[in-house]
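@channel anyone free to eyeball this complex?
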Amino acid sequence: MRSLTYPRFMLRQHVGFGAFSFVVVGVLQYLIVQLITTEDTATMVRGVIEQLPERMRMIVSEQFITRLTTGGAVAFGFSHPLALALLAINAIQFPARHVAGEIEGGTMEWLLAQPVARLRVVLSVSGAGAVTLLAIVCGAWIGSLSALAGAGALVPDLLFKILGVGFNLWILMVLVMSYTLVLAAFARDGGKVALRAAAVTFVFYLLHVLVPIWDAIAFTRPFNFFTYYQPQKLISGERSITLDVVVLAMVVAVCQLIAARRFCRRDIPG
Amino acid sequence: MDNTVISVDRLTKYYGRTVGVKDVSFAVERGEIFGFLGPNGAGKTTTIRLLLGLIRATSGTISVLGQPVPAGSLAARKRCGYLPGDFEGYAHLTAAEFLRFAAELRGAETPAQRELLEQFRFSQADLGRKIKHLSHGTRQKLGIVQAFFHRPELAILDEPTGGLDPLMQEAFYELLRRAQDDGCTVFFSSHVLPEVEKTCHRVAIIREGEVVALETLDALKQRRFRRLSVTYREPVGRVELPGATLVKQEGKLAEYLVEGEIAPLLQALSGLPVADIVFPEADLEEVFMAYYRRSERA
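replying in thread with the prediction:
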C-alpha cells in the first residue's frame, strides 16, 4: 500500500522510544494501582499531608486525597507527570522531526519532489503520531487493568471509566501533537519547534497545577487544555467525558486545518 | 503531440525584497539535454525549486510535462527524477534502505536500478552502509541512481557532478547519453562549464536572477568570443583594436576578448610591432565570461 509507505517509514524511526514509553507508562500504572490496592496507603499519605504547609496541603489534597481509592489510584497514574511527560515528548517529536526537522535537513525537499502530495505528508505525520500515542495509552490501560484484575477489583463500571480516561488522555496528547504541527508548519528548525512546543506544554501544565491555589490565574482555566482532562473527576463521576473530548477534538481539528493549509502553501525550504 | 517538456514564461520569484529570479522565460524540448549555467546565487536552484512546485512563483507561469505547476505538480513529479544540490538523503538509513524507500514512494519497479548501481560501482558494502557514513561522492552517486532508477521522462538535476571523481563524472556523462537515447529529457544546472560543453544541446546563462543568454551550444560558440594574446616587440601603451575588448595589458603583453569579424582586427595588428599572437579556438568559458562582462557593463 503506497499510501502507507511514509507513515510506516516514520513509525519505524519511533518504535524504540515508543516501546520504551509504552513499558514505562504501563509499569508505572501497574505499580501505582497495585500499591493502592494492596497496602493501606491512605492513612500513611494523610499523615504525611497533614505535616505540610497550608498552601502545599491545598494542592496535594486535591491531587492525592481523592485518589486513595482504587479508582483514584488509576486516575493518579493517568495524570502522573512522568506518564504525561513521556506522552508529550512522543507527541512533540513527530511534527518537530518530520516536518520542521526534515525541512532543516533537506530531506523534505527531496520527499516533495517525489510523487507525494503535501497533504499526505501532514496526514502521515498526524496519523503516525496518533497511532504511537494510542499505543502508549494502551500501555497505561494494560497496566491498570492487569493490576485491578490481579486484585479482583475490576468491575465493568470502572473498566469503562478507565477506557474513557485513556481516550481523553489520547485526545489531549493528539492536541499537543497538533499545535506542535502548527509550529512546525511555519518553521524550518526542528529543534526550535520542539523547544517551543515543550515550553507551551509546560506553561499550560504549570498553570493547571497552580490554578487551585492562585486566584489571579483562575481566568486561564477555560483556555487551558489541561482543564479538559481531569481523570480523577471522570473516575469519580463528577465530570462527563463528552464535553472534554468535544472541546479537545475541536481544537485538534482547528490546529490540523491551520497546519495543513500552511504546509500546503509554504515554500520548501522557506 | 506537444514536444515541449518544460515551459517557463516570465517567471519571477521574490524572497521578501530580494530577487530570486526575474522574468525568466525558456522552453525545453523532449529529448534535449538543457544546461542551466550560472555561478552560485545566480538563481539556478530557485528556478529548479519553482519547476518542482517546491516554492511558489511571485508571477509567471510554469508547465512541466504538460502539467501546470504548482496545480498539476504531483502528476508531473510521477514522471520526473530529481537530484537536489548537496544531496543528503536520510542519514539513518542504509543506501539500500533508502533506495527501497524511494521505490516504495513511487510504487513502481525500478528497472534501471541494478544497471545503475553497477555503472556507478556500488559495492555491497556501500549499499549496507548508513548514508551518514558514506563519503560525499558516494552520496552523490546514490542521488544520481535514485533520480534515474525509474527511467523518468524528465530528469531535473541540480549540480549533479559535485563531489564525483573524474571516472564517475564520465559514468555520469555516459548515463546522460543513454538516458537521452531512451527519450529522457534532462535539465541540469551547473557552474562547471566543461561538463555543459560535453553534454548539452542548449544552455541558458543566468546572472543575478535573469537569463542573459539562451542559445544552442553551437550558436554560442559561433559568436566567437575568443581570447587573443598579443606580444609586442616593445611596450606600446594601451592599444585598442577593432572588435576586441582589452582585458589585460602588462608591458609587452596584451590580452583581448574578440567578438565577430576578425579581418579589421588583423588589419589593425599588421600596422603594429607584433612579435607573437596566440589565438586559440573559443571555449565556453570565454563565452560565459563574455556574457557576464557584457551584462555587468549593461
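from a first look: Residues 119 and 144 of chain A are 37 Å apart (CA to CA).
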